[in-house]
Amino acid sequence: MSSCLFCKIAAGDIPSGKVYEDDDVYAFRDIHPKAPTHVLVIPKTHIATLSEANDAALLGTLMERVRFIADQVLELADGYRVVINVREGGGQEVFHLHVHILGGKKLPF
Ligand code: 5GP
Ligand code: ZN
Q: Where is the motif named Histidine triad motif mapped on this chain (predicted)?
């Protein structure tokens, strides 16, 4: 979607700290990190929010890549947290589905 910030990032039209990319997903560092490691993983297909994601294969691929990126690319050997904020009440500010990976310190719940 041409007006979407994260579509522009995935297309390379806006610079980002890319950590991983393949045909299905794009992963980059959050501009305001809330942990020593804070990466966002997005599907390249524009889906506004988890509430509108009814493609089980896409969601399965997204979560498998989140695991791969956290364990193999970021090497968060001590563990990490995975967060999806859903719509305004869940704290979602950018309406392109994204998974936060947070790690690098002991995280309070
Ligand atoms: P949300 O609150 O929607 O779950 O998270 C959106 C995240 O995107 C926030 O943590 C915010 O810091 C990050 N963000 C917003 N704009 C940009 C940007 O232009 N570049 C990057 N790398 N991150 C962004
Ligand atoms: Zn988008």
A: 96-100
Does any ligand 1 atom lie closer than 6 A to the CB of residue 31?
Answer: yes
Task: Let me know if 23 is exposed, middle or buried by CB neighbors in 10 A (0-12, 13-18, 19+).
Answer: exposed
**Residue ranges near ligand 2 (ion) with Cβ within 5 Å:** 1, 4, 6-7, 46, 96
As a whole number of angstroms, the distance between CA 1 and CA 18 comes to 20
Cα-flanking dihedrals φ and ψ of residue 50, to 5°? -55, -35
User: Is 26:9 a contact under the CB 8 Å cutoff?
Assistant: yes
pTM of the model: 0.97
CATH number of 5-103: 3.30.428.10
